[in-house]
């Protein structure tokens, strides 16, 4: 449970971060980390479109650079895009300047890419871009920096679809056990997860919908 649904102590470390949305609404928020990846992201988009679900993609800047077509597909389909650093770097391993520079480099390529799809795009005043730190960890100074400039989004439920120790049934078991009102649910549109989410993602959407949950993007 320490990983799948972070305890209050971990949430306390980043008090301005969003871990869960409104617990009074029977709504969940699907998110996808680490893309865009041509072998995975288009399939995820097709699946979400088939079910009429909008989601949020926390993207690695270097993947956007390498796969601009997949980035455009996500934006054109009306999904939200968040910052996951340019090189998917861990704040605990890298220094503050290196980390924050990597964050800003990612945001630059996101904003540039959005303007290519929607010329003239300007972020509404007071609407901060979304940011999720790789592995969910930052040093105190890094957190202070991004919290002033971004809407930091963590998770209420991570499916662990990336784990070699789990299969699609295990991923679904995590969803059934931990999903609740307002859950921010984390999948990965990555090569590590594709073998599991091909089964688990449509199964999760169908199960959540049968349980009465609606879906929103952040």
CATH topology, by name, is TIM Barrel
CATH superfamily: Glycoside hydrolase/deacetylase
Low-confidence stretches: none
Q: Estimate the helix proportion, in percent.
A: 40-55%
Average residue pLDDT: 96
SS class: alpha/beta
| Share of β-strand residues | 5-15%
Describe the protein.
With 218 residues, the protein is an alpha/beta fold. The chain has a single domain, classed as Alpha-Beta Barrel (TIM Barrel), CATH 3.20.20. The protein is 42% helix and 13% strand. It contains 8 helices and 8 strands. Strands 1, 2, 3, 6, 7 and 8 form a 6-stranded parallel beta sheet that branches. Strand 4, helix 6 and strand 5 form a beta-alpha-beta unit. The relative contact order is 0.22. The mean pLDDT is 96.
Q: Quick summary of this structure?
A:
The chain has 218 residues and is of the alpha/beta class. It has helices at residues 8-13, 41-51, 61-66, 68-76, 96-117, 140-149, 168-178, 194-210, and strands at residues 27-33, 56-59, 80-83, 130-131, 151-152, 157-158, 184-188, 214-215.
Throw out a few tags for this protein.
globular; 8 helices; TIM Barrel; 42% helix; alpha/beta; 8 strands; two-stranded parallel ribbon; 6-stranded parallel sheet; 218 residues
Secondary-structure map:
Elements: H1 8-13, E1 27-33, H2 41-51, E2 56-59, H3 61-66, H4 68-76, E3 80-83, H5 96-117, E4 130-131, H6 140-149, E5 151-152, E6 157-158, H7 168-178, E7 184-188, H8 194-210, E8 214-215
């Amino acid at each position: 449970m320490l990983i799948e649904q972070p305890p209050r102590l971990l949430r306390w470390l980043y008090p301005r971060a969003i871990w869960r949305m409104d617990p009074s609404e029977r709504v969940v928020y699907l998110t996808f980390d680490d893309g865009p990846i041509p072998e995975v992201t288009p399939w995820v988009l097709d699946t979400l479109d088939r079910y009429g679900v909008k989601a949020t993609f926390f993207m690695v800047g270097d993947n956007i650079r390498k796969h601009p077509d997949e980035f455009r597909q996500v934006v054109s389909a009306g999904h939200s895009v968040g910052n996951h650093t340019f090189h998917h770097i861990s704040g605990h391993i890298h220094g503050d300047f290196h980390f924050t520079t990597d964050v800003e480099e990612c945001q630059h390529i996101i904003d540039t890419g959005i303007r290519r799809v929607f010329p003239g795009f300007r972020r509404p005043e007071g609407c901060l871009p979304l940011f999720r730190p790789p592995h969910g960890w930052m040093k105190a100074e890094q957190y202070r920096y991004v919290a002033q400039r971004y809407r930091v989004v963590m998770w209420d439920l991570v499916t662990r679809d990336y784990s070699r120790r789990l299969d699609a049934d295990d991923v679904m078991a995590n969803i059934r056990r931990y999903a609740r009102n307002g859950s921010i649910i984390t999948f990965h549109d990555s090569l590590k997860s594709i073998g599991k989410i091909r089964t688990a993602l449509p199964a999760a959407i169908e199960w959540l919908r049968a349980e009465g949950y609606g879906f929103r993007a952040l």
